[in-house]
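Before going further, learn to read the protein records used in this course. A complete example follows; check for yourself that the lines match position by position.
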Amino acid sequence: MHAHNCLTYVEGFSTMETLFDSNAPKKPTNLSVNSDLLEKSRKLKINLSATLEEALKQKLATSEARKWAKKNNNAIKAYNDFVEVHGCFGDEFREF
């Protein structure tokens, strides 16, 4: 995806997008983890719950961003085509 330096695409969502209810209660869950990975993580006192939550947030944001890009592909292409022909608004004023 490109937008000829007019827009910056960031994989993920802005803080205005709600991916999940961050105030929902925690729920105990059983997981299977590589035993060596688990042992080394525990020795380093890595918070497994927090680490898993952060990884899941990233996966969810990436998945949602890909869905958004796919859903909006035609509009993104139309915009890129327009900029290719007409340039980006304000290009004549840019100093970089």
Summary: Residues 15 and 61 are 11 Å apart (CA to CA). The radius of gyration is 21 Å.
